[in-house]
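Recall that a protein's primary structure is simply its ordered list of amino acids. Everything else, from secondary elements to tertiary packing, is in principle encoded there. The following example makes that idea concrete.
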Amino acid sequence: MTSIFSSNILKEGPKMARYRNVANKISGGPAYDLILAVERYVYNYPSSSNESIHHQDIDLTSIAIQSISISENTALHKVLHELAYIEFYLYLYDDIDWVDNIFDFAEYATSMFPEMNLETPIEFLSKQESDIYYAKKKYDQYFIHGLNHLVNSAFAVLWHRKSFLLDFNLKIAEKIRPLKKCDFPMLEQDGRVPRTTYFKKWIQNAIQLRERGNCHYCGRVVASPAIANQEYDIDHMVPIAQGGTNDPTNLVLSCPSCNNDKRASIRSFDDVFNWPKIN
């Protein structure tokens, strides 16, 4: 399978003010389909034999190794990119065997561009078949670039589903634990990545905002601007000792006592919400 990471259009562009959190509009539609796709990947229930093959082609070991360092481009972003490339580009844009005529493809493309926060190229609205074929080739990379918006939208939802993030990082840990330092010198030891000792301000801010200043485990307020002299830790849900990484999706806010009690264990939990009971 051709990896989405081979596309030049997805390489980093000029640097913005680094580590400044930026507001992004969240889209629905295909982004929610992408969430379902990554759930099928994490929980190992592909929708077809073809999807099962594509899941096996995702190099999660390489992605896990890259998570030694904290990056805005998280392991989850990378997996979502691969899945978006498969679901929306390979299956439906690159391969058009599924269409009865080229205008069915044009209808798909024109429905996707607004979802990806892109202007729809006028060529896709043509009534000439040759124009549609030309547009398909011309805007190939433009379409791939648009997948970034779907990935970011899906990530924005999943970032708040910490039970899912735990399961995702347990899947990553399965790839880390068997690795040998002699084969992967960047490891601290066999099956263990180096623990980061410094968390940049942008990741601290992102985690505190998601947790609303509360300890992930006990719920006590540990990071509020209204309270002086607070102490808090950034904890790894899947501990480094059990194959966890420093990926942002594996990090939560913790009070020191909960962090000390947890040590190298893994605490499972459910995502919950509060709402009045409906009779």
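Residues 1-16 have pLDDT under 50 and may be disordered. DSSP finds ten helices and two strands in the chain.
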